[in-house]
Amino acid sequence: MSLLEASQVCKNFGGLAAVNKVDLVVEEGEIVGLIGPNGAGKSTLLNLIDGTLRVSSGRIVFRGHDITRYSPHRRARLGIARVFQKNALFRSMTVLENVLAGSYLRTDHGPLAALTRTLDKVRKDPGLLDRCHELLELVGLTDRTHELCVNLPHGSQRELCVAVALASNPTLLLLDEPLTGMNAEETASMIRIIKEINRTRGTTVLVVEHNVRAVLGLCARAVVLNYGQKLVEGSPRECVTDPAVIEAYLGTDADVA
Amino acid sequence: MSSLDLWLQATVNGIALGWLYVLMALGLTLILSIMGILQLAHGEIYMLGAYAVHYLVGRGLGLYPAIATSMFIMAVLGIILERGLFRPRSGREVVLCSIVISTGLTLILTSAIVVIFGLYTKSLPLLATGSVEIFGAAVPKDRILAIGFSVLALVLLYLFLKKTRLGLAMIASAQNREGSFLKGINPNRMSMAAMAIGCALAALAGALAGAILQLQPYMGALPMIKGLVIIVLGGLGSIPGALIGGLILGLIDGIVPVFFSPAVASVGPLVVVILVLLFRPKGLLGHD
Amino acid sequence: MTKRGWTKLLLWVGLVVIAFALPTILRRDPYWLTVFCLLAINTLLVSSLRSVTLINEISLGQVGFAVIGAYAHAALMMKAHIPFWPSLILSSLFSALIALAVAYPFLKVKGIYFSILTLLTAETFRLVAYYWTSMTGGSLGLTGVPGPGKQQVPFVGEVNFDRPANYYYIAVGVVLVALLILYWLERAYISFQWRAIRDDNLLAGAVGINVIGYKTINFVIAAFMAGLSGALFASYQHNLSPDTTSRFGVSMSIYLLVYMVVGGKDYFVGPLMGTTVLMLIAEATRSSQQYQPMITGAIAILVILFLPMGLVGIPKQVRSWRRVKRLRAAGVDGVNPAGKEGKA
Ligand SMILES: Nc1ncnc2c1ncn2[C@@H]1O[C@H](COP(=O)(O)OP(=O)(O)OP(=O)(O)O)[C@@H](O)[C@H]1O
Ligand SMILES: [Mg+2]
């Protein structure tokens, strides 16, 4: 059984079919690339997988559970984590607090416990703190633990987003353009991070990315979307040399030259 | 009175009321969708509009010129309020600011009217006297005139929004503020226009309500709430939505108390809104 | 504990001591005691409103839950002859139950929609009270709502708590306990989830937080507190009126918001501060009662425009002005004077 099976999923916004009858299968332990020109429906597809949006039709199965109608937090509970395209962070919190909030699923003992336990106690839980620091070390933010997250530069915020997503110890990590706006050094380090979590933790990764070189380096398999539909699927190299893909990109995006 | 008669009168009353709510909702929806703020003092503009007519009529002006003048004054007041108070300031929580400022305004305006005109109810001259027969039932002429004026205002607004440059720019700005800013539409001008039109519509609604019913310093609270509820019902920014929402609320208010207890009628809007939101979170005609 | 923590604790203890010493201090002036009693009840209501801001929503419906608490308390005591204390709790629970019933559709929508819905709720509950004559006395109002009556107090003996001077102790005591609970909640782990939801509700859902669930808990607790304040009010005033201009009209929702913002909505003591200052100003200007709403309204507008952090936030505000001035002097431009740093 595959880890994630999306079959015939559609999402309509008014008259626009942002995602149209897409089949997507992700196997355990893979890194899969999801590419396509702007507005192709990549982010929308991720939204459908993590529950931010509900499908208009179609079915999504994750680890044998039909999650089509699940709300986002139930999907997170099953092991889906998400990094949004915009830097989504808990704005009023420090770097460490962000990761702590991301660790919610590991600290959750039901609402009654949340009402009776003090925040300080959770904050000072040594096991939890160790894990958070480990994650911050992984993404290279150990020296900024107590800074407010909004004061970080864009690249570091992006890394923090990844740390927050990883804090729940997900089986499937959905990354939406993790490399946009990063310089060469940050790009290299982010690629290293993604590879490392895939190798050491066995986390499956579904990554949307415009940077073709990065996709070639990261993924064993890629899926191309265009106008909400799946265009091609295969090895990244096959995908980017496919005439249909080149045509889809021509005039819209120069990255593929 | 026959039961048909009762039905018909209740329906006409409901529709007349509904149209006044629609006028309120149209102004509020313009302001809300273009400026992104909750203007809770809109009901007080409605009240001021009615009192302005009362004052002008007392000074010897005819009813209709007085209504037109009052609409104009309120439009100017709307522009002043937008420039002076509601224009969003950077780094603030826009919604909270607007709610607090408009609540402050509500307090100031109502108590000013209480100070000037007193707490007692006032009245305006009738729009018309007598009644016409519809299906054998007597329907007061002034209700029909009030409905007529409201329809006229709606049609004019619709034409303005769809046919003029300013109107089209306003629609664009309501749908996508940032996008239209990039296309060279000045959001501050759009906000001013929205406030001016919204306040003029509120003044009209207030004057009509004052002519049908009575004037009273607290008369604005209810129509303001109704207007807001209509927006939720019909969908933010949708004119047909406001129309349908307004008629639903008007009919609930007009008909239900006649046949059931008024307590049931007062729960009606809440129940309808909850049902609509459960099945269509963006309102009846709103889209996601 | 930190030094600041100790100072805070000391201030609180001082406040409580003063609150309980007031009846002795104001022995000659029972009128002021009724003012302070109402002040305590209002502070609870405003605090319930502030509690909802923790999930980044502005509830204009707290008055509605106070209406429910007040009339439920009156009905339980007058019709079912339930004693004061159980009735107080039951009526607050009833108010919380109603909140639970409407929570789902309410909390699915956000921002302006939520505010509108809660405003509609408050008005609906008021109208029901207005028209449901058999239960509530309708527009004429409900008179003769009983107080706690005579009760045995250890070491003191029998006390008639229907006397305003004695009811004061009950009101202040209950409000203090309620405030303590609210304070605890802000220190509890749940506040962290609320904060996460407030900061970014999509991300909160993505990390596994049940957004609607935690919002519901918040909303229900706030409704409980509002209901409690309503019930306390019923036994304080002994008569209830659902008029537009009464305590349960829309204008009261408005006043609550003003109290909160003037005090400072980011601070736990904000509601206390705002309610105290504005109610005292109202008392001071009693002679020109007509102008009172004007003064309150003007204060609200001035505070939100020039002191967005409220009265409690003045020290922080001054510090931020100074910083901006320094930066300007150093030639850094485009800084935002009202800029809010995240909460420390
Ligand atoms: N909430 C929404 N409401 C209406 N239309 C939407 C919404 N979200 C996305 N769309 C539309 O759906 C289409 C697909 O958008 P999506 O964000 O999924 O594209 P994308 O492939 O992620 O593009 P990009 O590379 O720019 O991120 C676009 O045309 C977009 O305008
Ligand atoms: Mg995208």
Provide an overview of this structure.
The complex is a heterotrimer of chains A (257), B (288) and C (344). Helix content of chain A is 40%, strand content 23%. Chain A has twelve helices and ten strands. In chain A, strands 6-7-8-3-9-10 form a six-stranded mixed sheet, with helices on both faces. A four-stranded antiparallel sheet of chain A has the order 2-1-4-5, covered by helices on one side. Chain B has 288 residues and is mainly α. A two-stranded antiparallel sheet of chain B has the order 1-2. In chain B, a hairpin with a 2-residue loop joins strand 1 and strand 2. In chain B, helix 1 (3-35) runs parallel beside helix 5, helix 3 packs antiparallel against helix 8 and helix 5 (141-163) packs across helix 6 (165-175). Chain B is globular, with a radius of gyration of 19 Å. The model of chain B has no long low-confidence stretch (mean pLDDT 88). Chain C folds into two domains: 16-311, ABC transporter involved in vitamin B12 uptake, BtuC, CATH 1.10.3470; 313-344. In chain C, 70% of the residues lie in helices and 2% in strands. In chain C, a hairpin with a 3-residue loop joins strand 1 and strand 2 (157-160). The longest helix of chain C is centred in the middle third of the chain and has 27 residues, at 211-237. Chain A binds chain C through residues 50-52, 71-73, 76-77, 81-82, 84, 88-93, 100-102, 104-105, 107-108, 111, 113-122, 148, 150, 164-165, 167-168, and chain C through 185, 187-193, 195-196, 198-200, 202-214, 217, 341-343. The structure holds adenosine-5'-triphosphate and magnesium ion.
